[in-house]
Design a protein that fits this description.
The protein is built from 10 helices and 6 strands, in the order H-E-E-H-H-E-H-E-H-H-E-H-E-H-H-H. The chain has 270 residues and is mostly helical. The two termini are 25 Å apart. The protein has a single domain, classed as TIM Barrel. It is 45% helix and 9% strand. The chain binds 2-acetamido-2-deoxy-beta-D-glucopyranose (7 copies). The site of one 2-acetamido-2-deoxy-beta-D-glucopyranose has 5 residues, from helix 4. One 2-acetamido-2-deoxy-beta-D-glucopyranose binds next to helix 5. InterPro entries: Aldolase_TIM (IPR013785). Keywords: Signal.
Length: 270
């Protein structure tokens, strides 16, 4: 009993701490490589797990779903991102059904993780048409410890195109709910061909994310799903410029090795 109440207290404290600081989450899974340097844990249920279970608006049994949540929620009390990419609010004919499915899944998830843990639906904000913003608001109303995790990947060498796309999804999110954390997903590889983006482009993205007052941080994605990440690049990820650049950035962002921190939010645990 004591352990359970402690876990609950930690979860509730984490959700307010997470929301009031600038977090750089490490959602990478490259071979033998993690980011470290004050980055924060995050949990993720991949589309290859969720999509087959929810295709067409089906709902898995509560037991099956709760077991999946426990399997993937490897850092209890840190946010859980649900990548159920077949449950988007892009059509009024399915929105009601999908709202019911997502409400059910997030309620069951909350049954098995610490009270106060944050949930977010991966890139749902980029995939909600304006006439269905009310559905997204209802989804948030169904579980209020919510955050937004829009994708912010790189499709070209143009930082201005990348920034415009980010600004556009932030505007959508602020229309839906302007009080919840926004943590975009970035990826050091091009979305189209998986090769690593140039170091200076990555550096500019990190700086624009930090300067953007609408954001409470961001998530770094990469690796894990071999189908999309291409094994050719998986093992060499640590040799690419992004890792050193990210670590230098985190070092000065949080004052990891001394010096004045620009932001609070370095990971609480080792
Ligand atoms: C969220 O939705 C689920 C599924 O409809 C429902 O069982 C649950 O009671 C709702 N929770 C809240 C807080 O409205
Ligand atoms: C935004 O989310 C917060 C926290 O869940 C909630 O209290 C508020 O009512 C929401 N606002 C809208 C416009 O839905
Ligand atoms: C990958 O795509 C980017 C953006 O279009 C391009 O600049 C780069 O040259 C491509 N790299 C390879 C190896 O095809
Ligand atoms: C990026 O977008 C922000 C917010 O819209 C804007 O203030 C900033 O000037 C833009 N920066 C660049 C380099 O495009
Ligand atoms: C992975 O990338 C390499 C180098 O661009 C390419 O030769 C290979 O065909 C790719 N493999 C897959 C499975 O896409
Ligand atoms: C990753 O670690 C494994 C186990 O220690 C090792 O066999 C492998 O060579 C490493 N790969 C790279 C790319 O360093
Ligand atoms: C980044 O690379 C530079 C030059 O090789 C090196 O001096 C520095 O220690 C590296 N930083 C980190 C955080 O690994």
């Amino acid at each position: 009993m004591r352990n359970i109440s402690r876990l609950i207290a930690v979860g509730a404290a984490m959700s307010s701490t997470l929301a009031s600081s600038f977090r750089v989450f490490d959602n990478t899974a490259y071979t033998n490589t993690s980011v470290g340097y004050g980055s924060t844990n995050i949990n993720w249920i991949h589309a290859y797990v969720c999509n087959p279970l929810t295709e067409g608006g089906t709902i898995p049994s509560a037991d099956v779903w709760k077991a999946i949540v426990l399997e993937w929620n490897v850092y209890p009390s840190y946010p859980l991102v649900l990548a159920c990419e077949v449950l988007y609010f892009t059509s009024s004919s399915t929105a009601g059904l999908y709202l019911k499915v997502m409400s059910t899944l997030q309620t069951w998830a909350a049954d098995v993780f610490p009270e106060g843990q944050i949930i977010g639906w991966y890139s749902l904000s980029r995939n909600t048409i304006s006439s269905l913003y009310g559905h997204y608001q209802e989804l948030i109303g169904n579980y209020s410890n919510h955050a937004f995790f829009p994708s912010a990947y790189t499709f070209s060498d143009s930082i201005s195109t990348w920034n415009k796309s980010l600004t556009s999804v932030i505007n959508v999110i602020n229309t839906i709910n302007d009080t919840l954390p926004i943590w975009p997903y970035i990826w050091p590889q091009y979305h189209g061909n998986y090769s690593f983006i140039p170091g200076d482009l990555w550096q500019q993205e990190l700086e624009l994310l930090e300067a953007n007052r609408n954001l409470e941080g961001f998530v770094i994605w990469g690796g894990k799903n071999h189908a999309v990440c291409n094994d050719t690049y998986q093992a060499t990820a640590a040799l690419e410029p992004w890792l050193n650049i990210t670590r230098e950035y985190l070092d000065t962002l949080y004052g990891v090795y001394g010096g004045a921190a620009r932001k609070v939010g370095a990971q609480l645990f080792n």
